[in-house]
Amino acid sequence: MTRLGHERYCEEILVQTGLFREVLRGADLTAKVPTCPEWTVGELTRHVGEALRWMGTTVRTRAREAVPEEDVPGFGGPRCSDPASLDAWLKEGAELTAAALREAGPDTRVWTWTGDQKAGFWARRAVHETVIHRADLAIAARAPYVLAPEVAADTLEEWLEIGSLPQTMERRPELAGLLGPGRTLCLHATDTGPAGTRWLIDLTGDRIAWRRGGQDERAAATLSGPLTDVLLVFYRRLPADTSTVTVQGDRGLFDEWLGLVSFG
C-alpha cells in the first residue's frame, strides 16, 4: 500500500491529536486505562504529549543521537492536573511537532532508532503513536473510535515493517521462538472491498517477514474482521474473542504471536 505522504502525516498529527483532545475534555483524568493498566487517563495524555514533543525536538534540532528528555522544551507538561492546561499543552505540542516536520521535509537527515535516518520516519511514527493511544483513551472513556481506512492500513503496515526489522529481532531474541515450518499468519480486513485486504506474516524463515497477501492464499491462522478491529486486536487493544472478529486455524499460534509481539 502507498504510504500517506509527508504532508498527510503532518496533517494527521493534528487531526489525531484533535480527536484525542475531544475525548479528553469529557474524561476523568484519574480513571485507569484498561489497555495500559499502569497509567491513568492523565498519565496517558502526558505520555502522548511527551512523545510528540520529543519527536518534534529530534527533528527541529536535526539530532544525530537520541535527545535526552531534559533537553525537550515543555516535556513534562503542566505541573497542575487542570484538564484545560493539559489540553492546551497537548495541542501546542502537536502543532510544534507538525511545524518542525513540515519545515524539515521528509528527507532531512535526523537520528532514528531504525536504519531510516530521515525526518519522514518521525512524521509517520508520530501519527501512529497517537492513533493507538487515542484508542486507549476511547476504551478508557467508553467513547466511540473511528479511524479512516487508509490511516488504519498504514498503522498496521508500519507495525509490520518495524516488527520485521533485523534490529527488532536483535533486541528481542525471544521472537526467534515464533519461527518454524508452516508458521504463517493472515490478517484479513473484510470491509475494504469485495474481497477485503490480506496481509500475510511469514514466520517460516530466519526472521519475521510480511507482504500483502492474495485472495486465495491460506495461512496457519487467520484473523478476520473489520480493518479497525483487526488493527486493534493486533495491537492488543481488543481481545481476540471480540464479537466482530474471528480467528480461524491454529489459535495457539495466533495467541503465541500476540503474547510475544507488542509495539506501542
- Low-pLDDT residue spans: none
CATH topology of the largest domain, anyone? Four Helix Bundle (Hemerythrin (Met), subunit A)
Oligomeric form: single chain
Largest sheet: 5 strands, mixed
CATH class division of the largest domain: Mainly Alpha
Instruction: Report the mean per-residue pLDDT as an integer.
Output: 93
Strand order of the largest sheet: 3-2-1-4-5
> How large is the share of residues in beta strands?
5-15%
| Number of helices, where a helix is a run of at least 4 consecutive DSSP H or I residues | 8
DSSP summary, beta strand count: 5
What is the overall silhouette? globular
Topology pattern, helix = H, strand = E: HHHHHHEEEEHEH
CATH architecture name of the largest domain = Up-down Bundle
Organism: Streptomyces ochraceiscleroticus
Keywords: Isomerase
GO molecular function: isomerase activity
Domain Mycothiol-dependent maleylpyruvate isomerase metal-binding: 16-138
Give structural notes.
GO terms for molecular function: isomerase activity. Keywords: Isomerase. Residues 16-138 form the Mycothiol-dependent maleylpyruvate isomerase metal-binding domain. This protein is an alpha+beta fold and 264 residues long. The protein folds into 2 domains: 6-146, Up-down Bundle (Four Helix Bundle (Hemerythrin (Met), subunit A)), CATH 1.20.120.450; 155-260, 2-Layer Sandwich (Nonspecific Lipid-transfer Protein, Chain A), CATH 3.30.1050. The chain is built from 8 helices and 5 strands; from the N terminus they run ααααααββββαβα. A 5-stranded mixed sheet has the order 3-2-1-4-5. Helix 1 packs parallel to helix 4 (119-141), helix 2 packs antiparallel against helix 4 (119-141) and helix 4 (119-141) packs across helix 5. The longest helix is centred in the middle third of the chain and has 23 residues, at 119-141. The two termini are 21 Å apart. The mean pLDDT is 93.
